């Protein structure tokens, strides 16, 4: 038995397995007065319960107890995980152990029954992946139930929308253009798009410089390159407060309406302190806004905060909860409206756990154009620093759109993903359900042949799915 990628063969042998037989259904009926019998309204598959009779063997009781302790650690999961049984090596169930019924224990063996709860009643074959360059293609679902696909669109030219249809149902992100009434335009103009895997375009901020901001401190030490990211091994010294290195870049133009995206990593543990910050400055080095992750609490737990400040005084975003993780921070100013957004990032770069706040600058106190950006990482006095990395920085000018103008949602090289499994639409890893088309749905692949259409004809398409079986 393979549990969550771990072969359990060395821990026990399976005596019997139940709960994988003929499919079970829950019927919904309606009792209609004076009508014989009942009205059949439908059916559904309930969750699946699998019971596995196992026998743990060892040379003595001590070895058996050690195996059981190790097994308990492996089975201690907080979500349904993949499970493969030896007599179905090409099928995967997704379950979580619910309880174990203890049996007899002898000198060389221990019997028990392990109950596994599967919220998803289906088992799945190996993932299928197919690529298409045509806008009409056929996908064969060889399972015995409907499948949930993940459809990835590689963008070949700027598009204002993307639509996927099976002929009866559809899903849509963005808005189509009526050529008689609408004009497609760029909502954002890229000013800087820099992966921080080198120092090209950046210069050192002089040692001793002070960032007079709640997220600031003095400049000391220096950056070095890690694995495709900036990191710090020398924070310098400051017996009185925060200290660490900083590098600065200048934009090709001053930005009034802007969108800044900063990708960072903050791995904070107990007893470690750190600030991982981006300062946005005007042409005279005055701080217009700051954003970053900071852990400034000496305690036994995680106390990382995500904070955004305006003008070194206005705290507009203060969120505690993203600990020991990669993050995507965004600050957007459009007119008087500031929008601060933070995401956590998975290993594949997709964003989740969105948190956002807004602030309307009605008194025009924080309207200076930004011209520069400074990356700053610091620790406090002589405390150990959190492990911090800066991964990527993007700066865009936000364009003012007219009533008849429709913005492009993706450019050449971007990726649009319709994830029918998690029911989310992603553009370059960012959930964009805010521009999901009205009436669109996350439909499934029927059993057998499915003809799909992608519109417009501006994509290379890849579809992935696991065929489900009853």
Keywords summarizing the entry:
single chain; 470 residues; mainly beta; nine-stranded mixed beta sheet; seven-stranded antiparallel beta sheet; 1 helix; 40 strands; 53% strand
Shape: globular
What structural class do the secondary elements suggest? mainly beta
Strand content: over 45%
| Averaged pLDDT | 94
Helical region count?
Answer: 1
Radius of gyration: 28 Å
Poorly predicted segments: none
The profile of the biggest β sheet is: 9 strands, mixed
Report on the structure:
This protein is mainly β. The protein has 1 helix and 40 strands. Strands 18, 19, 22, 23, 25, 26, 27, 28 and 32 form a 9-stranded mixed beta sheet that branches.
What's the short version?
The protein is mostly beta strands and 470 residues long. The chain has 1 helix and 40 strands.
């Amino acid at each position: 038995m393979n549990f969550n990628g771990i072969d359990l063969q060395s821990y026990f042998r399976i005596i019997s397995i139940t709960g994988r037989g003929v499919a079970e259904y829950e019927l919904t009926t309606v009792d209609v007065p004076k009508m014989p019998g009942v009205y059949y309204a439908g059916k559904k598959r309930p969750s699946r319960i699998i019971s596995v009779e196992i026998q743990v063997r060892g040379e003595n009781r001590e070895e058996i107890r050690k195996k059981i302790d190790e097994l308990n650690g492996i089975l201690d999961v907080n979500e349904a995980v993949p499970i493969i049984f030896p007599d179905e090596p090409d099928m995967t169930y997704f379950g979580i152990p619910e309880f174990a019924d203890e049996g007899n224990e002898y000198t060389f063996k221990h019997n028990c029954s392990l109950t596994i709860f599967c919220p998803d009643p289906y088992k799945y074959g190996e993932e299928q992946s197919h690529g298409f360059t045509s806008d009409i293609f056929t996908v064969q679902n060889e399972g015995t139930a409907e499948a949930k696909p993940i459809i990835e669109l590689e963008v070949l030219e700027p598009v204002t929308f993307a639509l996927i249809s099976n002929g009866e149902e559809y899903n849509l992100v963005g808005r189509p253009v009526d050529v008689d009434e609408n004009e497609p335009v760029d909502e954002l103009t890229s000013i800087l798009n820099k992966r921080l895997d080198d120092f090209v375009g950046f210069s050192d901020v002089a040692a001793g410089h002070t960032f007079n901001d709640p997220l600031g401190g003095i400049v000391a030490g220096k950056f070095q390159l890690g694995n495709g990211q900036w990191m710090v091994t020398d924070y310098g010294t400051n017996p009185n407060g925060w200290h660490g290195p900083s590098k600065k870049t200048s934009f090709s133009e001053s930005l009034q309406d802007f969108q800044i995206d900063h990708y960072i990593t903050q791995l904070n543990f107990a007893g470690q302190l750190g600030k991982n910050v981006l300062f946005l400055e005007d042409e005279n080095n005055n701080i217009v806004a700051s954003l970053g992750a900071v852990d400034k609490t000496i305690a036994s737990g995680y106390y990382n905060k995500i904070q955004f400040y305006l003008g070194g005084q206005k705290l507009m975003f203060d969120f505690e909860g993203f600990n020991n993780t990669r993050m995507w921070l965004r600050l957007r100013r459009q007119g008087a409206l500031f929008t601060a957004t933070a995401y956590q990032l998975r290993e594949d770069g997709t964003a989740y756990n969105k948190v956002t706040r807004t602030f309307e600058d009605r008194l025009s106190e924080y309207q200076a154009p930004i011209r520069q950006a400074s990356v700053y990482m610091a620790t406090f006095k002589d405390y150990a620093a959190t492990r911090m990395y800066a991964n990527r920085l993007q700066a865009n000018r936000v364009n003012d759109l007219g009533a008849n103008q429709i913005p492009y949602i993706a450019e050449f090289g971007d990726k649009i993903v319709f994830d029918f499994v998690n029911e989310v639409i992603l553009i370059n890893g960012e959930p964009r359900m805010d521009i999901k088309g009205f009436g669109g749905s996350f439909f499934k692949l029927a059993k057998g042949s499915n003809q799909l259409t992608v519109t417009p004809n501006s994509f290379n398409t890849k579809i992935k799915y696991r065929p489900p079986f009853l």
